[in-house]
Amino acid sequence: MRAPVPVDLATTLWPLQRGTGDPCHIGTPDGAIWRASRVRTGPVSYRLTQRARDEIGCRAWGPGAEEFVETLPELFCLDEDLSGFAPTEPKVADAHRRFPGLRMLRTGRVFETLVPTILEQKVHGIAARRSWRLLVRRYGEPAPGPVPPGLTVPPAAAAWRMVPSWVFHQAGVGPERSRAIVAAARVADRFDQPGCPPSEIQRRLSAVPGIGPWTVAEVSQRALGDADAVSVGDFHLAAMIGWTLAGRPFDDGEMLQHLAPLRPHRYRAIRLLVVGGHAVKPKFGPRTAVTDHSWH
């Protein structure tokens, strides 16, 4: 794929990886990124490599391979018009200048993105990633093609609907999150509809019990290419933005007020602050302990 703009493969795809042990996302020593997914035509494994500043190499296997290759430009939001994005905030402007290859993501796989996002609701990231690994390895399927060992296609919606409550419990997933996953799985076909406006998909997501603004924003950032989706309610984000841009912690209201001039690119600005090395949040105590409730 030759792009009309620079594309930084590793930096752009980073939000799709759910921890270093993600069974659906594996990086190999040669710099390639391997992922497994489900598209409309079936499971697919794909290997992406950075060939040049504006060129991405792709190989794909499985029933969904042809569809994935055809839609590869959509994954990197190559249809975006950034001519109006000229941030005046110095740190954002500096990162935008130094990282022109940072792209937004539009996987189009809303339900596939939704499940790990629900798992991350109101729990430590380490615990959420462990739950994701356990459940994917149990209910997913081996990725097609000559793939790295352990690469796994995430479970289909039908499989998530059938996960017993006690299995969720063993994986450290509480009743609220497990019920939200099952409820979303029952209406998963309402999310992954080509041509459906992002605003309508967001409305449909919000209608599912257990899915709030934070979850909708996190999914929109990865599956819908929403450059303006801010994860309001995040445990760390508002404080990080405050310390980064004003030298003190913000609450959500202050964060939104400070980011308002950057609309409709608020999420892009947040990503730029992170990849540009500007994002800071002082540590005032020991790291939060990971609580395991699965043994109860």
Automatic annotation (TrEMBL):
<protein>
    <submittedName>
        <fullName>DNA-3-methyladenine glycosylase 2 family protein</fullName>
    </submittedName>
</protein>
<keyword id="KW-0234">DNA repair</keyword>
<dbReference type="InterPro" id="IPR051912">
    <property type="entry name" value="Alkylbase_DNA_Glycosylase/TA"/>
</dbReference>
<keyword id="KW-0227">DNA damage</keyword>
<dbReference type="InterPro" id="IPR011257">
    <property type="entry name" value="DNA_glycosylase"/>
</dbReference>
